[in-house]
Amino acid sequence: MRRVFYYARGIPMKRYLFFLILLLVLSGCSSVYTTEDKATENQVKTIDQTEKKLNIQEDVYVPNPQITDDINLMTVGETVTDAKGELTLKSYKLLNKTVNIGGVEMVLKDAKLLHFVPDYSMIDFFHSYTHEEEFDFIKVGIEVKNTSDKDIKFTPVAFVKTNKGELKTWEEDIFLEELTGEIQRNDVKKGNMGFILENTNDIKSIEILTSDVLDGVGEHVEKAKTIKLDI
Question: Which end of the chain is less enclosed by CB atoms within 10 A, N or C?
Answer without folding.
Answer: N
